[in-house]
Design goal:
With about 475 residues, this protein is α/β, with parallel strands linked by helices. It contains 13 helices and 22 strands. Bound molecules: flavin-adenine dinucleotide.
Length: about 475
Amino acid sequence: MSAFDYDLFVIGGGSGGVRAARVAAGEAGAKVALAEEDRYGGTCVIRGCVPKKLMVFASGYGAMADEATAYGWDITAGAFDWSKFSGRLNSELDRLEGVYRKLLAGSGVTTYDARARLVDAHTVALSTGETVTAKHILVATGGRPVRPDMPNAHLGIVSDDIFHLETLPKSILIIGGGYIACEFACILAGLGVQVTQYYRGAQILRGFDEEARGLIAESMRDLGIKLHTGTNIVEMHRAADVDDDLMSGPAEDVQFGGATSEAPGTGPIRVKATHGAIEDFDVVLFATGRTPNTADMGLEGVGVTLGRAGQIEVDAYSQTKVPSIYAIGDVTDRVNLTPVAIREGMAFVETVFHGNPTPVDHALIPSAVFTQPELGTVGLTEEQARDQEPIEVYCTSFRPMQTAFAEKPNRVLMKLIVSQKNRTVLGCHIVAPNAGEMIQLAGIAVKMGATKEDFDRTVAVHPTMSEEIVTMRKPMRTA
Ligand code: FAD
């Protein structure tokens, strides 16, 4: 008989927490409980990947109807009905949340609909007033979007709020240049919203390959997005409360980071930008970053250490400084993607419940940015690779057959970064429709250590866009 109530207590019912709990209970036979303070499924299912991807699909149909006419179809895209779409979206998320609850129950996991806080190395206090003990505690509390620390930031919304808009705005200002900002810019432009985007850096999608970033920025401008780089917001007010000269406006309700959004649709927001423009927008979306959910959880009190960004510090086995407490997923701020949180959860179970110490391999993780066109990427960018060793760069950019026929300007980009020393493909970057699907497959070859010659030996699938990835004969440059 164990001295503890449970073998494992998981805090957070998102991607990582649910998987770890299910596998520990179902496969390893452990006695497991999980606490979730909000909705089961977490960021990915409720306010991230899933609803976003459904919005990506929704936003694509308008352009498709347009292209179809060039192929002889007599079609005109009608108006987009946001309330119909969001009603169906919410039903789908309810269904998925139900699936997550069922999976946990089916694996024998006890669930608590409650916020959890650490009391000591083996004890958790729940917002229901209960206290439970466990041999191991797994913190999988994810992260949340943050607003910039500026007056009136509460007038803007964050990515969580997008899915709950009652009406689609006519105009939106998106602040930020990361993947979430760019994805929502493309989605909303596709749905007919006038999109303006400010990013304070010189180019969007920092950290991705420079040429890929450049092509996506151009493509976004072609979509009608008014993308301003090197630009930030200076101040914002409810338009009804100020004159044109914002500086003379009243200092309304000044609030700082951490404020919650106002109900949207209570009048346009007047924004002054660093380039001097003063413009009104129906909605301002801050996509300016995310922070790990570690506040007020009793972590430091029990000896768990946090990094500068508030993330839980862990070793390669996801173990914190307190031996009985582990942490996985976005709360550790390693690679903030759903499949990575899931891998970390499974490696944790393997390590702790199967006695097989398993670190997570964070190298060569393929990923996608669901802009229009998409970016699929794996491995090193040209810039990272050339700092590491001598490389060859194979690159091609062309107008794909499908949209060229419809006389659209769309271009795609295929790029391979190859080691001069051992011919290994160090990085693969694709900007194209469905690049996310392509990079999943190219990622296998890159992860296996394929050389450029392995790519060359593979016969092309014709006619496709991705055949170019195996037909680039001469390097564009060396570096
Ligand atoms: P989460 O899924 O965030 O789950 C944490 C859970 O813990 C939450 O449900 C929260 O309510 C709960 N919680 C927090 N504190 C407590 C507490 N004290 N007590 C009880 N419960 C608590 N990733 C991809 O791979 N592909 C994508 O296309 C993609 N798109 C994204 C789009 C957006 C807009 C966003 C925001 C994220 C996206 N991500 C994407 C990232 C992905 O959603 C996260 O990496 C993933 O959800 C992390 O899983 P997690 O288990 O660490 O945390």
